[in-house]
Specification:
With 349 residues, the chain is mainly alpha-helical. The protein contains 15 helices and 2 strands. A two-stranded antiparallel ribbon has the order 1-2.
Length: 349
């Protein structure tokens, strides 16, 4: 029942007019959706999807993937350092109490995930590498199945299969694909890291604000990337040549700024907020829409038009997300177990 009151009963000779519930103001429903966990998750996927277009603009001028990723993480860590310090408000013990969570997030969810993905791209096509990485939602469903010893409900299974089928169509893997066993292993390793990312960010933690987790994780990730570059594991090359974004010729710092501010700062902070609101499983499935958003951004910024098969795949991805979300809402989730330690990273589905 809604919160609207029932009309008061007046004397029979003077009946009071029925009270009407005021119509919602224009844009209220849209604002409510954007403020919800699902709306924030879709926003996070949309800005994450910008990274491919911004990075490609830099790569086409001679930047190496390692240099682009390192600049991305380092710049975002610097941007978030001040607001993260303000969010802590002098309570630096929160970092000490949650050091393992921050370390795992930065090491596995940020640095290792991107490093493994780029190693997979070096041996496989981008489409196959990305498909392997986005096996993470399936891994999460299987892990929760094993951990809870409860078989996923039919709608969750259907949503899993539907989303993966849509992902295959969006990536359009019908062409000749080079398969390399080592590359496949790198891609699977990236998927494991992505699954860990969702588990960590979905953890309920009232003592560590999302912006602090994002800032700390990016600092750890940037440090790992610089270390990998210093040891020769990651080739580094950058330039200052002009870049092309859609019909515009822009300085090199324009796509770099977009990569740092939009595709990293906003993306990671909103992704953590969404994962805590939705849980690791649903958040990971919503993240599949990042592929669809990446196709749309590439169309707008790089003039790469999506084909009918890719659009159909996008619909299947959204359909799978809806099925999983609906399945989550149909049956009330059991109360989450209390965590004994601040650094526990068990998933809260």
């Amino acid at each position: 029942m809604s919160a609207a009151r029932r009309p008061a009963v007046a004397p029979a000779t003077h009946p009071a007019p029925a009270t009407r519930t005021p119509a919602p103001a224009p844009g209220t429903a849209a604002a409510g959706f954007l403020a919800s966990g699902l709306g924030v998750a879709l926003f996070s996927s949309a800005v994450f999807g910008l990274s491919g277009s911004f990075a490609k603009a830099l790569l086409e001028t001679g930047w190496t993937p390692g240099a682009a990723v390192t600049a991305r993480l380092s710049g975002a860590a610097l941007v978030l350092a001040v607001p993260a310090a303000v969010a802590l408000r002098g309570r630096w013990h929160q970092l000490r109490d949650n050091w393992l969570t921050v370390l795992l997030f930065g090491l596995i969810g940020v640095a290792a995930c991107q490093l493994f993905y780029f190693n997979a791209v070096a041996r496989l096509s981008v489409g196959v590498a990305l498909l392997l990485e986005y096996l993470a939602p399936v891994m999460i469903v299987l892990w929760l199945w094993v951990a809870s010893r409860r078989k996923p409900r039919p709608l969750t299974i259907a949503g899993t299969l539907l989303s993966l089928a849509g992902l295959v169509l969006v990536l359009d893997l019908t062409g000749a694909v080079k398969i390399d066993v080592i590359g496949v292993l790198w891609g699977v390793a990236a998927a494991v890291c992505l699954a860990v990312y969702f588990f960590i960010t979905a953890k309920e933690n009232d003592t560590l604000p999302p912006i602090v987790l994002a800032s700390g994780g990016l600092m750890v990730g940037a440090a790992v990337m610089w270390l990998a570059a210093a040891t020769g594991l990651l080739p580094m090359a950058a330039g200052t040549a002009e870049t092309r974004l859609g019909p515009w010729i822009t300085p090199w710092w324009v796509p770099l700024a977009g990569l740092v501010l939009l595709a990293t700062v906003l993306a990671y902070v909103s992704g953590i907020v969404a994962a805590r609101a939705l849980g690791s499983k649903v958040a990971s499935f919503v993240s599949l829409t990042e592929v669809l958003f990446a196709v749309i951004w590439a169309w707008l910024l790089l003039a790469e038009l999506p084909g009918p098969v890719q659009l159909l795949g996008g619909l299947l991805i959204v359909g799978g997300v809806v099925l999983v979300r609906w399945d989550e809402l149909r049956i009330p989730a059991p109360p989450a177990a209390e965590l004994d330690h601040a650094n526990d990273v068990e998933p809260v589905p």
